[in-house]
Amino acid sequence: MLSFVIRRLLAGVALVFVIATITYVLMHSSTGNVARNILGENATAEQVAAKTTELGLDQPLLTQYFSWLGNALTGNFGISWYNSESVTAALVGRMPITLSMVISAIIVIALISVVLGVTAAVKGGWLDRVIQVVSVVGFALPNFWVALMLVLTFSLSLRLLPATGYVPPSESILGWAATLLLPVTSLVLGGVASAAQQIRGATIDVLRQDYIRTLHARGLSPQSVVLKHALRNAAGPALTVLSLQFIALLGGAVVIERVFAIPGIGTLTVNAALGGDVPLLMGIVVVMAILVVLVNLVIDIANGWVNPKVRVQ
Amino acid sequence: MRSKRIVATAAALALALGLSACGGSTSTGGSATAGKDGVLSAGTLTLAALADNNSFDRAALEIGHKTQYWMPVFDTLLVLDPQSVPQPGLATKWSYNADNTVLSLTLREGVKFTDGAPFDGKAVAANLDYLKNGGGQNAYMAKSVKTVDVVDATHANLVLSAPDPGLLGYLGVVGGAMASPASLTAADKATNPVGSGPYVLDKAKTVAGSQFVYERNADYWDLKSFPYEKLIIKPMTDVTARINALKSGQVNGAVIDSKSAAEAKSSGLQVETTQVDWTGLFLADREGKVVPALGDVRVRQAINYLFDSPALLKGISLGQGEVTNQVFGKSSQAYVPALDNYYSHDEAKAKKLMADAGYADGFTVTMPDSPGFATVNPILEQTLLKLNIKTEWVKVAPDALGGQILAGKFPMFVFNLGSQSAWQDIQKVALPTSPWNTAKVNSAELNALIEKAQFATGSEQDTAMQAVNTWLVKNAWFAPFYRMSSPYATDAKTKVVLQSQNAAPWIRSYSPAP
Prior knowledge:
heterodimer, A: mainly alpha, MetI-like fold, 2 domains, 13 helices, B: alpha+beta, D-Maltodextrin-Binding Protein, domain 2, Dipeptide-binding Protein, domain 3, 9-stranded mixed sheet, 29% helix, 23% strand
């Protein structure tokens, strides 16, 4: 198991390096106007040139990249070009907000989609068809539209929940839950629709296996067969789809954070990308890439735990 | 079983109510009560701002939407009233010498910065010097100040390198913002503003990107002008989020857009408008170096006559604005009412002018295609084709648009530009060195008019500024379509008076609704 984890980690490090390099090269092409954007329209050409030099943008691409990489390897992502805030401080301040939203969403997605998927697979018939139709509809609805409808209903009409903003849990746990309830629900709907279908399919496949028939023949109760045996074997595809969901939710959070004015990593990413704020965007990309690698690693380990064959492979 | 359901329902309701009670801060902005010395106390004013704050560094302060972040903490030497007329601020009196090269200021006595340092002539000198050399976007506001002669603690003379008709206006915004001299170069200058303003930033409760919290400065010299005990500003980049926050009572005021104005009104919100930006074509290559046709004034005039501005206003901005052919706003010293309709839509006249100029078959022009103008560009292309002017679009990313335009890459382009004071606008668009004179066209005739305006005083200066404006319109340096209305919405508890040359109101302009 240890060598399995080490191999995965090394592959992850290589992946983060490749992603960082490609992003840096792509970002470099949009830094031509950064100095002008920072200094404003009244800056003279000399001032713009001086700023360009100060930011190191007059250096060759490779020099800039290795300078950034050297600092990044020591944990120093530099400071934002626009507001002089430390990139690390910005990430530390914003990342927990997005993660609290995404992790809450993935937990809810996992719970609901397992119940729906397994129920549809086991019961079949009209219940299966209803769940499938609901899943397809849920998948078809854009999350920003769902978010707006939720705000309209629960914030503006019923006045039960806040329409915008974020309250840190350190300030108020209930306030935190209240500010996250609608954003998380917006993210959950599409996720449940997708994951429930996958879990349904995986469960049906498992339920058709010979050993399931044998278990039934040995007189095990249907609940025991499903919960103790079928679910464990169907968990592999479910975990994979949930890991993909997690990554998709990180992207979906960009839109949801705007609709709910949540100061998370999504808003920061959009602003950094639009402004060509290379240090900030690189910091975000690296941290996100590490996060994705870690999530995949955790899922791989979980898969190995539920299915020993994976460890051998 | 039934009792379980009842308990479950009650628990769900209690949770929902509990959550709603704890669900973020709800704005108060309530009615004011009279307090000590007649100072009104009106609880908390919560505003949603369109943009986040970058920095409190004195040299990096910005105008526009970001004024709301720094105005609570930094007083200005002068205060611009809603019509942008300078009024006393930290400077109680001001006067120019005979040739407008020395501005004498009488400074308010007894004012202290929140670190205990006194506000005096030395503080004025330190602030203007820091702004001028600090490399910020608004360093130009102190550019004309050669030196500051500190006469004594309450008198300072700004010695100018040349008359600067925009200076008084600058002293009412970033140019006149006063920070404690010791804080100007402090390590935490970007996050810890030290001013003498009506509020103090509560650093403990402020979270960049989420909310900026300000508490009243109890020692402030003009508490009566600021009725709110507490101020919270929340950056919200999305207009839908701002409107939802307003409707749900989370904020008392927010900038909205013309497309949302009707919905806001129907929801019971108060909507006021001000006109800051104008939109239209910049006929930049006026000397015809890239597109020879644009060097002919008749071609530029033809383009002005071609566009049906009322239809554009209605179609693009839902009628939220006013048609104009001039780049100066209504509150500007250079504004001439008759120039708003100088080029009334007349396609036949436009075609005749093109024919007279020898361009009946039209020409081809390259323009930038950026997502911000996605709705306008197809209309421009179709309309220009009526004069056989073909458009070649160059894709430009939003963050690169300003830079590429200012670098003179395009002979003609559409843009939205803000209008401030007459001199500020002339500096922006009309001089050979102006950033928005992107082809750096140098007209001796125009320069003479500008010079005359610079050195004139009183009503003569008004006339001279208007002459500059008239020249720009007649020579068709631009083809403005309309001035856009910038709507600002408040809830029923809050009253606001909008600023003529800034989309976001000053903090002093808010008060509890009667």
